[in-house]
Each structure stands twice: as C-alpha cells, then as structure tokens.
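Quick note —
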Amino acid sequence: GLDYGTDLRKLSMTFDLRDDETGISYYILTACKQGGACLPSRKVETKGSHTLDIQAKPGDRWFSKVKAYNKAGLAREARTDGLLIDPIPPTAGTVIIVDKTPSGVNVNYQPSTSIIYAKIEKFEGGAAKIKTYTIVAIDQNNKEVPGTKKNIERTSVKLIEDVRGTFKQANKYRIKVTATKFTRTSVSVTSAAVTIDNTKPLFYPISDLTPENANTSEDDVAFTKSKTTSSFYSQGAYDKESGITSVQAGVRKVGSSSYVKLQTIPISKTRVSLTVNLKHGTRYENCLIATNEAGLKGVKCSNGYVVDHTPPSKGKVIEGQGSDMEYTKDANEITCQWSGFADSQSAIDKYVVSIGVCGNSATMKTTTTSKSENKFTFDEGFQFQHGERYCCTVTAYNQAGLPSSVESNGVRVVLQPPQPGYVYDSGSSSEDSSFTKNINSFECSWTDFKEIHSRVEYCEVCVQSNGKDCDGAMFKTVAKGNKMSFSNLKLKQGVEYFCKVICVNTVGLDTQVLSDGFTIDTTPPILGKVNVDGIRKGDMTYLREGDHLVVEIDEVVDKESGIKLILFGVGSKPHT
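Predicted structure written out below.
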C-alpha cells in the first residue's frame, strides 16, 4: 500500500481475504478518519481493489477497514495502516547561483568552467514533506547540460550544492531544481542565468603624464620632474563578457610587485593623479587594477617614467659659425651656436633659443629647436642696429621639463667704418711737408682713426702719385702707432705725391684718407745776374771805407717749389 495520497474524495484500497473451508460470502468496507468518525460502510462480494468515497482535508490521515463474512456466518476484520492525504505540491523555494563562499553571494558572472554553485532555500513540503531534489544545469538553449543532473534525498541536500559539468566561456547557464514530495507532487524553480567569464579584464593603454599636462594631454612621457605627484591618462578597463565592478590606481617601482601608493578610483575616471613621494633617478610605473563581475582581477601598467629632479648641466653659447664673434657687420643675420649641454638622467629634449639686445628682454626674439640642433641663425625679419650688442640665450630643457639657461657674452653690430683721422706728409703731426728733395725715402704720419663700437685693428699706408693709386705691394701695414717710414723709393722730380692711410676696424670696414700732398724738388732755384752797387750807382769794382752796398738780382726762379727765402751776404774771397 501507499503511505501518502492526494485525492480528497476517493480512498482506494486493495485486499485479499479468503476462507478455504466455506468460502467468503461478502465483505463490509469502511473508510475512517484517524482520530475521527468512520463513514457509512459498503458491502461488496468480491475481493481485490475498491474505492471508497471520503471527505478528507489536506493533512488528514485516513485508513480503510474490511470485514469478511464466510458462508458459516463467521467474520474477520482487517485494516490498513492509513494514508496521509496531501494533494498540495511543494511550496517553491529559491534557487540562486552564488560564489563559493560559505554564505554564498549571488553572482551574475563566474570564472569557473567546471562547477556552478547553487544556493537552495525555502522549499516546503507541507504535510507530506519533500522526498527528493533533482538538480540540473540548463544551457542558454534551454537544454540540460549533459552530466550535470543529480538526485538528492531530502535529508542529504546542502544549503549550497555544487553542480559539476563542462561550461563554455561566454555562455549563459541556469540551475533548475525540482523538489518532489512523498505524494509525488513536485515543483520546479530555475535560477537566473550566470555567464561564464574566465578571462581577466582588458585595458586601454596607459599614458604617463607630468603634473603640468595632467589635465590636457594624452601623450605618454618618459620622464617627470615632479617630486610628489604621479599622473596618468587611460580610458580604463573593460570586459567583453562581464562588467567592471571596481578599479584601483597604483604607483610602484618598475620591477617591484608592491605599490608605494594604491587607492580605489571611480570606474569611469580617465585622468588620475596620485600623491606619492617620488625619488630622483627612480623608474616608476602607473598601474590599473580592475576586477570584473566574475571576480577576476587584471593588472595593466604604463611603460614607466624616470624621475629627474635636476636640470641639465650648463653648456657654452657663442655667436658665429665655429668661433665666437665679438663683432659683426651683418645687419640681417646672427647665428647662435651652443655646445656642452648635457643631462645624464633624462637627456636633452629641446632647446629654446633667443636673441636680443643684451640686458633688454623686451627686444628678445625666440625660437625652439630640436635636441639634435646646435645652432640657429636669426635671419628672417631681423634688422640688427648699428652699435648695439646682441646676446644669444639658449635654454636647454631635459625630458623632465627642467631648464638650464646660458647667455652668451654678446656680439656687437658694427655697420660703419672708423671715423677718419688727419694724414700728414711728414713723420710728425706737428709738421706737414709740401715739398721734399728726397727721392728715396719719406715718412707719413696720421692722427687716430676713431672707432666707437669696435676697434681699429690695423692701418695700411702707401705713398702714391697724383692720379695713380697704390698697388698691393706698395702698402705697409701698421698694427700699432701713427707713423710709417718708407725707403727705397723712386720718387720723380717735379711729381706730386700723397700719403694714403687706410684704417680697418674689427669687422673689416675701412676708412681711406689722403694727405694734402707733397712735391719732389731736387733742383736749386735759378738765379739771374747779380749786381753790387754803391751809392754812386752802377756796378762797383772797388769799395772804400764807409761805402754802402746794394746787391741786385735780376731774377730768382724755382718752378717746382718756389722761393722760400733769399739770403744776402758779403765777405772776402774766397767766399767766406
């Protein structure tokens, strides 16, 4: 017989009572409620299965009685153990897919591809109680996953049951639990789906930034001058199957697994600055640590950057191509040249070159060159002024952004030649000769040719005739002094000559000055007839004491130099 039933109106019974001597005449069948009254009996003449009408309620226990009469009129009664009547199926409980922690936390994603944990709660059997639980995994096509079904007796079921099988990455699975009562009524509950995600989070690239460009740039840097801030940019983490539940940002030394700073940041944050003590010369990396909904963690770190707290070592700056220029006569072009800037930590990134009147920042013109350049020519749109001194300033920036500036000693722009001096036809400025009888040698002298903005480097001197310039071989160079002597000359009688002085300043501009000239005169004056007269007139041959002499010259001529003076004298023979 059965221990449980579900029909509130019918009670089925089966019996086999017999009498081998006289045989059975008839049977009296009765249905009774345990602890209650029996219903009216019914007479039947055959053994076997019969159904009795009852009026049961859920949870009632009913039993049946049979009384058999033989043909001799004797009777014997038998009864069943009773049947618990419960037509109500089990009360549905909850089925939740959880993690493997003892308390079981609901999950929508999990990393395991071989086991799913199901938390089973609140299934109630009622009067008849639950006999078994059937647990099986259902795939996303609503089919049972092979090898996952198992039947568990009520007394053996655990709060969290593990369902083992083969589960595919990125597929969705549910757990179906069917609770069956002793009355064979059942209820099934299917969990929400869990997605298999056994891959770690993925990341967008991480760009290290400096504090200066932390809010504007996305370009990766290799160096920083910062002492207290580590900054980076990234669009963060993502997961193709599940979502991201948390993100941490950290800073650590390259090669180290421990972080010097680690903090949780908003998942959507793209620009991060962490306050941390950064040591000079150390290489750090910024990292993101992301956890997906399956509980898997992924780590992504930047390329790393080196901390450089020191500026480049200073170099040398000059004006000119190759050697340092002190002066220039070019009003449209000045070249700044530099060397010796270096940075052993982060290397040189760029040079900023400026030029302007020394000490006057308002006149500065600036340009930026690459780290491979070592000179720059300012030649477009410039008009350098005569007499001004221009300085080149070169600022070398290392890759951490620290500058080192050096200013040159400057170059003076000289656009004008020296101021002319005065040239004398003599060896002294106190005398200026107009004539000379010397055809082999001569001296020229001059006053200073003044140079305000540079200096007179040398003077070239020659003696030239009127209308004929000196050739190169005739020049003599004077580095110092204001006089030049010439010898081995071949000056010609009656020809006018000039002293020519060319003085050259530092930039090669020259000033030429000619003397007022001198003439060669190697012949004496021409004298006419000389008459010596007394008071008596006429030429006298003899004198007497007390006579007066009158000397008359008919003509005195010198066509080259003219007559400077005439000396008259008287004396005895021979001409003393």
